[in-house]
Design brief:
- It contains ten helices and ten strands.
- The strands form two sheets. It has a six-stranded mixed beta sheet with strand order 6-7-8-3-9-10, with helices on both faces. Strands 2-1-4-5 form a four-stranded antiparallel beta sheet, covered by helices on one side.
- The longest helix is centred in the C-terminal third of the chain and has 16 residues.
- The protein starts with 5 loop residues before the first strand and ends in a 6-residue tail after the last helix.
Length: 241
């Protein structure tokens, strides 16, 4: 089997004395879409923050593209090729859509390629082309999510992590974003999705990771997880027949 792009092994992490992740292990292959599901407070955002370097793991290893990145700075991890679209989108509200997108490329120096990628983002998300000069903070939730994802893509990551992709968005918008996610994975990018809506998560991702109070309880193809009675009951609200 090909070497995974990301390999998380026995990661323990939290906030000061409070441990949130208790030995988390999973991996992501190149061009694979993996969803991370679990109840509120399970530690999903904490896991993304640990991978992107915002939190230093207490122990365990995180290998990305053949390199050990556990404990590296967020900037070094971004430069290595991991982009993080955080919960709540965190755009620069007073700045225009264009400037937000350019912020995503701040570590890059290849001006011509940046311009090409910018054009590509505006093609992938035509609404952003219409809104290019609008202040990001005044856009709708769906437009802001698209802008946040496009900003993440502007760093040319090999792995894009999206926290709460569908939160507060209309089904139609989720569908549009889902199509873009499918397209970018066809082009070779890996995606790690955190999703409250497990149905949507299983549709978008080929592999699922279930996090249960800081520990992984199940990992498997989403087609299998969707049939798993415990997963159906706990996360999809479907009682056993
Ligand atoms: N900055 C922080 N300081 C201390 N504890 C925190 C901090 N951020 C989160 N926690 C705690 O860590 C645990 C996991 O939180 P986390 O945000 O990772 O969960 P989550 O799975 O993303 O939940 P949700 O689905 O609600 O987004 C929670 O108990 C939370 O209270
Ligand atoms: Mg969260």
């Amino acid at each position: 089997m090909a070497e995974p792009l990301l390999k998380v092994e026995s990661v323990v992490a939290g906030y000061g004395d409070i441990k949130v992740l208790w030995g988390v292990s999973f991996d992501i292959a190149p061009a694979e879409t993996v969803c991370l599901v679990g109840s509120n407070g399970a530690g999903k955002s904490t896991l993304l923050r640990t991978i992107s370097g915002l939190i230093k793991p207490e122990s365990g290893s995180i290998r990305f593209n053949g390199k050990d990145i556990a404990g590296a700075s967020p900037q070094a991890i971004l430069a290595a090729g991991i982009a993080h679209v955080p919960e709540g989108r965190r755009l620069f509200g007073p700045m225009s859509v264009m400037d937000n997108l350019l912020m995503g490329a701040y570590l890059r120096t290849d001006k011509e390629e940046i311009k090409r990628d910018l054009d590509r983002m505006l093609t992938l998300f035509p609404i952003l082309a219409k809104r290019r000069d609008q202040r990001a903070g005044t856009m709708s939730g769906g437009e802001q999510q698209m802008c946040a994802i496009a900003r993440g893509m502007m760093g040319r990551p090999k792995l894009l992590m999206i926290d709460e992709l569908s939160l507060g968005l209309a089904p139609k918008v989720v569908e549009t974003i889902g199509e873009v996610v499918a397209q970018i994975t066809r082009e070779g990018l890996s995606v790690l999705l955190v999703e409250q809506d497990v149905m949507t998560a299983f549709e978008l991702a080929s592999k699922g990771v279930v996090l249960d109070t800081g520990r992984i309880s199940v990992i498997g193809p989403t087609s299998e997880l969707a049939q798993n009675p415990a997963v159906r009951q706990a996360y999809m609200g479907i009682s056993p027949a």
